[in-house]
Amino acid sequence: MDDAMRDIFARQGYVVVPDVLNQQQLDELNEVYDQHIEEREEIQSKGGTDKKIRFSIRGRDTYQTTDRHGNTYVGRRFWSQAYRDLIDNETMLPILEEILGDPSWGHAPAHMPAELRPLFRLDHDNIHYKPGRKPADGEDKGGTLHGGPESFHITCVYELKTVGPDDGGFGCVVGTHKPANEQKLLDVDGDWKRNWCDTQWTSQLPNWDEDVPVHRVFAKAGDCILFTEKLKHGTIPWAGSGERRTLFYKYVPFGMHHGDVAYDTNDPELTERQKRIVEFSPCWFNEPREDKDYSANPALTKLHPLTHMESDPSVLLSGMSPPHIRLTDKTRTMLSTSLG
Ligand SMILES: O=C(O)CCC(=O)C(=O)O
User: Would you call 98 helix, strand, or coil by DSSP?
Assistant: First the structure.
């Protein structure tokens, strides 16, 4: 990452990295996408006519394996050489290492030992598809704003088809990865989570604070939008006449739990580095979510001996928040007792 990119990412909370994928990579990724679209499941999204097409991972071609830590993997996502290569894309890899490994960005806990800092993990991936819109199609509602300064994961958004300025897709409220800017949004009266963007079908609240503008992020096929999940972001309704084909690869620092979708680390086609990136960490600086069942994943609860209740904020770049360290009450009591 050069200084200009670093500066943009620090200021905006996202940056568009141009030309990350070449035409051959795009062709290969799109070919697998084509096959899945043929078998697509159309799912009526909650409470509206908005048709989002998502891809089920628990479908007919899923299977189960267990990794070397005894964690269970069920599922199969878009998978081919080109998809595996996205795990450690050569342009994005050093950028991910820096942003997830240097605690000054507020993703890695400050107490993470230096040797673990380069060992970030692919936590999960998402696939968004929208067919091209025709004038007679019904409304598209888009999505609500989410994300917050204490989040610790970052996302590579790969565009497989060009997204134009008025098409929709990824949008965000610039600068809200920093708590002072987030507060400006929280202070806006009204349902700003839903009413954040002016489109054919949605409107922004009239009292929106101009200090925190919304960006509709457009990008060419092959570009990667890198954003921090600290940033308030969401889906702008799709109005493009062409398809939306977007891949989201979501990474966490070593030892941090988020969505914890497990990958098939036994796949012999994965390189050692890819395996390392998709494997669960052997120990953790935060604890699993209470809303998920981890009974098939015994290695997901082992805390790192240097776990602290909070991450030291003194290491942070100006205006950033430390990551939220989620710990159970029992662990907190144990840690405060051992601290004396
Ligand atoms: O680009 C989009 O549709 C927004 C995606 C999103 O909200 C997310 O990845 O959390």
Answer: helix
